[in-house]
Hints:
Blueprint: E1 12-14, E2 17-18, H1 28-32, H2 34-56, H3 61-88, H4 97-114, H5 123-155, H6 159-191, H7 199-222, H8 227-231, H9 237-246, H10 248-278, H11 286-311, H12 313-333, H13 337-373, H14 378-407, H15 419-442, H16 459-468
Antiparallel strand pairs: 1-2
Helix pairs in contact: 2-4, 2-5, 2-6, 2-7, 2-10, 3-5, 3-14, 4-5, 4-7, 5-14, 6-7, 6-11, 6-13, 10-13, 10-14, 10-15, 11-12, 11-13, 12-13, 12-15, 14-15
Amino acid sequence: MSSHAAPTAASDDGPGHASDGTAARTPPWRYAIGMFGTSIPINMVKGSVILYYVDILGLDVRAYGVVMTIYAIIDAIDNPILGYLSDRTRTRFGRRRPWLVVGAPLLAASMIALFSAPAGLDGVALVLWFAVFAILTEAFDSVLNANYGALLPELFPRERQRAVANGLRQGFQLVALVISLAVTPLLTTQVFGTEETTGGFATTAILYAAVACIVIVYMAVGVRENPRYAADRRPALLSGVAAIVRNPLFWKVGLVGACYGVAMALVLSGVQLYVRYSLGLPVADALFLQAVVILVAAGGLAVWTRIVARRGALWTWRVAYAILAVSFAGLFLATGLVPAMLAGALVGIGWSGMLATNDLIVARVLDADASTHGEHREGLFLSAFGFFGRLNGVITGLALTSLGVFFGYNSGDDPGQDPGLAFRMYLCVYPFVLTTIGAVASRLVSVPEPTADQALGGTAAAAVEKTGR
C-alpha cells in the first residue's frame, strides 16, 4: 500500500533516520502489536485485583478505596514529570524507545509481586503490600502508555494512516483482553489454582509478564521515530503544564473521555464478581461473558474504522458513546449467562466504537497543541491526560466502598445480605450513569478538523501518496 511505502532513501543513518533526513516508515502492524504487550499485564490487574485482594484475601473495601485515592494524588504529581522527561529525552535510540525498553521489565516485576502476596499477610501488612505494588504497577504502566501513545501522532501524521494504525492496535488490545480477562479466570481458578486459593494468580502473572516484555521490546526496537521531532527545542515543564491546563480542549476531552474510561474500568474490575454473585455462577464462567464482549468488539473495529473514514472521528465518537450507554441496561436485567452474553454483545458494539475513535480525538488535540506552540510535547500532554485516566482508580475505589455502605458488601468474608444486587449496581448502574453523562457531554465537544496533510483523502495527502507509488 502506498501509505506504507518505504522512504526513497537508499540507506539509514541510524534508528529512525533516513539518509535524506526524513523519518523512516514504521509498518502500522509493528507499532500496533505493542498494544498487545502493554494490555496484558494491566488488564489482568484491572480484571482480577479486586477478586484477589478483596474477595479471596479479605482486604476491606474501605482500605482499597483509600489506596486508590492516595495513588491518584501521587499520579497527579509524577505523571506530568514522567511525560516531561520523555519529551526532553535525546538519545541515538530516540525519545520514546528507551523508556519502553526499560519500563517493560519494571512493569512485569511489579505486577508479579502484586499477585504474589506472601501467605499469612493480613491487616495493615496486607494493605501495605497491596498499596506498594499496586502503585508501582500503575506507575510503570503510565510510563509505558505515555511513551507508546505519544508515538501514534508522530509515526502516522495523516488521519487516514492514524485510523488504520489505531484500528490495528485496538485489535491487538482486544486479543490481549481475550487472554488477560476472558481466559484469566479459567487459568487462575481451574488450571493453575482454585476459586479459594491464590497460587494460580502468581503463576498466571509470571506467564503474562514474560509475554508482555517480549512483545513490548520487539515493538520498541522496530519503530522509527521522526528525527525532526528530536531536533525541536526541549519543552519546559512549568510553562508546558500551564499551557496544557489553560487549554479548554484538555478539560473538555479529558473529562468526557474519563466518563468512558471509568465506566469500562468498573466493568473490567467487577465482571468476575458479577458472574459469581449476580448470576450465581462459577467465576470461570466469566470467560464466556467476557469473550462475547471482546469478540464482538474486535469484529466491530473494521466497521467503525470505515465509519470514521466516511463521517469523521468526532461524529463516530458521539454515536458510539450513545450505544455504549444504552447497553448497560441489558446487563442489569440479565438473570442468566445467555441473557448476559446477549447484553454483553451490545456492550461490545459500543465499546468497539469508542476504541476506534477515542484516541483519534485525543490525537487531534495533540496536533493542535503542536501546531499552536511549535513544540512536540506529546509525552507531557498524554501524561496530563493520564490524570483523568487515574480517576478510574479513585472512582472504582469509591464505587466499591459504596457497596459496603448501601449493600453491606465489605469483602469476601463479609459479603452482606445481597451481594448480587450490589454488583449489578457496580457493573451496570454506575457505568450507565457515567456513559450517559459522557454521551450527552460529547455533543458539546468540538475538536480541530484535520489539516490538509492530515485529512482523510485530503488533496495534500493524496499528492504525497501519489509520489510514494
